[in-house]
Automatic annotation (TrEMBL):
Organism: Galdieria yellowstonensis
GO MF entry, a single one: hydrolase activity, acting on carbon-nitrogen (but not peptide) bonds, in linear amides
Coiled coil segments of this chain: none
Full protein name: Formamidase
Length: 447
């Protein structure tokens, strides 16, 4: 029997249908009582299909209106949960580790395209939202392993397809820990958070929101649904269960070692990306896509005690381990941009890697703008191309040092600094789909 004949599609989707019309129910929250949609046995190879993270709200067109009005309370749309059992039919148990191996990834036939976006400052925002408050969008077409965009000319690069989200269901105890600590953060407000004066993405955390919750096969009219929806955690941040970690090298051949908190593990997957830059800085920053994953699982009994070390008050305060696969684009020449923890107003911050990375990204954006690109085009590009972000120094007081390395081969023109006084070669300018910003929040003065 061939491998293709042995692969069972346990979660088919149709990207042309609404999330609530799919053959199997999706979910967009984390909760231990969301029932599994299928059971998979260790060592079996199975296929999981995924719609894009917004559930089809963003269209392949030349308007950014859908990016401006996107309903983020509906996100992410996840495939699963899947209960995992061993050869004897015994489920994974709390305290085990679940190993999820990514055997293959790809686009669904007829859907070989994706998008990168900037959210409106008052509806999602992003890492540089006060600099780029207008909703914008770029559409990417896939040509085998390569991506190019009609909205960002003169650029073509190889992608590393990967899921932004792989995670297990939390226990009720862990869910309560999440909700309490994130509630406290919101209640503290921005005035007590030094970094909030520099990073303007709001809100500070996304607390449980029953409206627009999808909870798998739980009847939306039931009392259980109302209770669970009021408790269930949003899927936006990564947490102890894995979740939305957005690790761009988590591609073919990778393995994820996830803590198990409930019987069966009940793992889910989604938020598929064709490519992403380190940090996914525009928030909707990867090349978002629908597609499929071919997976295989193993259970490591008592793996949490054997391999993980809690960093917190309970044994639940652990994090997954990721084993990156062997495949990635082979770029060898980079321009590297430095940032230190001095913000764009000239204020000194103490060893703040977020401020340093922000400065590195801004330095990079305005460098490439000198070659004819708009700053928004480069902001989108840095969110999705295979650029490498690093914390280069974290001990040399008072400045943290972060760097962003961009492969020069992705550009059709030579973008390196020149000794010659002749003007830079500039790309042919095209119009980027963009909306006006109609809000009242302060924005950084444009250059």
């Amino acid at each position: 029997m061939s491998t293709a004949e042995r692969v069972v599609n346990v979660f088919p989707v149709d990207p042309n249908l609404e999330p609530t019309q799919q053959k199997k129910p999706l979910h967009n929250r984390w909760h231990p009582e969301i029932p599994p949609v299928a059971q998979v046995k260790v060592n079996s190879v199975f296929r999981v299909e995924m719609i894009d993270w917004t559930g089809g709200q963003i269209k392949n067109n030349d308007s950014a209106e859908d990016m401006k009005t996107v309903n983020l309370a509906r996100c992410h749309h996840l495939s699963g949960p899947f209960a995992v059992v061993d050869e004897r039919g015994q489920p994974a148990q709390p305290g085990d580790l679940l190993m999820v191996e990514i055997c293959d990834l790809g686009a669904l036939p007829g859907h070989e395209w994706g998008y990168t976006g900037i959210f409106d400052r008052e509806n999602g925002g992003g890492f540089l939202t006060e600099h780029f408050p207008k909703a914008s969008k770029a559409i990417w077409d896939f040509e085998g392993i390569y991506a190019s965009s009609r909205h960002i000319p003169g650029v073509r690069f190889a992608g590393i397809i990967h899921p932004g989200i792989v995670g297990t269901a939390p226990s009720k105890e862990l869910l309560d820990i999440w909700n309490e600590r994130e509630r406290q953060l919101v209640e503290q407000g921005t005035e007590k958070m030094t970094l909030a004066s520099v990073l303007h993405c709001r809100p500070m955390a996304l607390l449980p929101e029953p409206k627009y919750a999808l909870l798998g096969s739980i009847d939306p009219k039931s009392a259980d649904f109302r209770r669970i929806a009021s408790e269930a955690a949003r899927t936006i941040p990564g947490r102890e269960n894995g979740g939305n970690c957005d690790i761009k090298n988590l591609s073919r051949g990778s393995r994820v070692y996830l803590p198990v908190f409930v019987p069966g593990a009940n793992f889910s997957i989604g938020d598929l990306h064709f490519s992403q830059g380190d940090g996914e800085v525009s928030f909707c920053g990867a090349i978002e896509m629908s597609g499929y994953a071919i997976l295989r699982c193993q259970i490591i009994r008592q793996g949490m005690d054997r391999y993980l070390s809690p960093m917190g008050p309970t044994k639940l305060h652990v994090n997954p381990i990721f084993e990156v696969g062997p495949l990635e684009p082979r770029y060898s020449e980079y321009l590297v941009f430095e940032g230190v923890s001095v913000d764009e107003y000239g204020r000194q911050h103490y060893l703040d890697a977020s401020v340093a990375y922000k400065r590195a990204v801004l330095n990079c954006i305005y460098y490439f703008a000198k070659f004819g690109y708009s700053p928004e085009q480069i902001y989108l590009l840095l969110s999705c191309c295979p650029c490498e972000g690093r914390i280069s120094g974290i001990v040399d007081v008072p400045n943290a040092c972060a760097t962003l390395a961009v492969p020069t081969a992705i550009f059709e023109i030579d973008v390196r600094p020149k000794v010659s006084p002749t003007p830079n070669v500039r790309v042919v300018q095209v119009t980027l789909p963009q909306c006006s910003y109609d809000g009242n929040l302060a924005t950084f003065p444009s250059r």
